[in-house]
Amino acid sequence: MKLTRYTRFNGDLSTSFDLEDLLQGLSDLLLDSGYQDPFAPFSGDAEQTMDDLRDAIRQQLDSGELLDEDSQAQYDELPEEGKEELVDKIIQRMKDEAYLNAEDPSEGQGQGAAGEGESVSFEITDKAMDFLGYKALQDLLGPLGKSSAGRHATLFEAAGVETNGSSKPYDFGDSLNLDITTTLNSVFAREGMPADGKLNLEYSDLHVQQSDFYSSCATVVLLDCSHSMILYGEDRFTPAKRVAMALSHLIRTQYPGDTIDLVLFHDHAEHIPIQDLPRVKVGPHYTNTREGLRVAQRILKRSSKDMKQIVMITDGKPSALTLEDGRIYKNAFGLDPLVISETLEEVNRCKRSNIMINTFMLTDDFPLVQFVRQVSAICRGKAYFTTPQTLGNYLLMDFMNRRAKHVN
């Protein structure tokens, strides 16, 4: 049995704050998407290094928002060497508590080369991603008040344990959750009150309590990671990543019967584990929407869930197409008739497979609005024209408020 040993606080500043508060402050670095902003402290396509992490921790310590008043005063009095040593202790604590995977800079180095390993990379763990997803969900739902939690309610009923006040005649295979009152009334209506006190109970007299029938849903988040998601002076990709993480956390904790998968689309499309989402950066320049829909359909066809949906987050028009011979046809100028027609045909295939597509468009260009409306009309989905700041509110509330049809 694992024991926890409590000791008297010895004044070590590395243990004077909650690591989750630090993670929240570091989220911009940990979820970096490759946004080329000259004014941002963490930008560029290079892999994040321990130097980046140290700089980010120093910024949090210097900000005065991480430590309490007394601890901040102690920190401010430390010499520069003491501050660097404190940062190293904090990084070690993050590794010890399974929030961070990182190599030891001194490993594999010869004597006298202690500083040469400072550029080693690091990555956050599943535990850290789970926390970031929880915080993203909390931040997105906070302004909306309490949300309904649990499974997806439908208009259908089934025999079960959680009753809703109604009953039905018992059918073979139903949960034997008897409605005693209705069952006895059926006997009395047929035979009256027996003189000997013995009831002649027949099969047709049995009634069981009704409960709400809940459906399960398979969701594929189709996330545009083409280069336009970080162009035009705005980072649209990082907010989209946060929302996808929040949706994943919501499904895992409140809708345990559901599944969620992640597909990235750019010049091509790829299915990646949802756990890899924090490390994803923007990819090539073009937007191969049709290939993304194809990959999403292959995933959903393997699912046995009643409800199947694609949540597409994008900011650009389809501008690429995978030809039959594997080559990529690209046209970034306007709405290419070939690309659009093939993409809409893929949408029609989704409709024939009873897959709903809900599109969240991070732009309001008129031609794109018309295209998205076509997609929504074909597959009976919804289209939301939103911004990175309001994306999460629209997406999460749509997911929780949706009432699904029964799939026969």
Explained architecture:
The protein is α/β, with parallel strands linked by helices and 408 residues long. It folds into three domains: 13-124, no CATH class; 140-151 and 216-401, von Willebrand factor, type A domain (Rossmann fold, 3-Layer(aba) Sandwich); 154-214, no CATH class. The protein is built from twelve helices and 13 strands. The strands form four sheets. A six-stranded mixed beta sheet has the order 8-7-6-9-12-13, with helices on both faces. A three-stranded antiparallel beta sheet has the order 3-5-4. Helix 8 (237-254) runs parallel beside helix 12 and helix 10 packs parallel to helix 11. Residues 36-46, 105-118, 142-164 and 403-408 have low confidence and may be disordered.
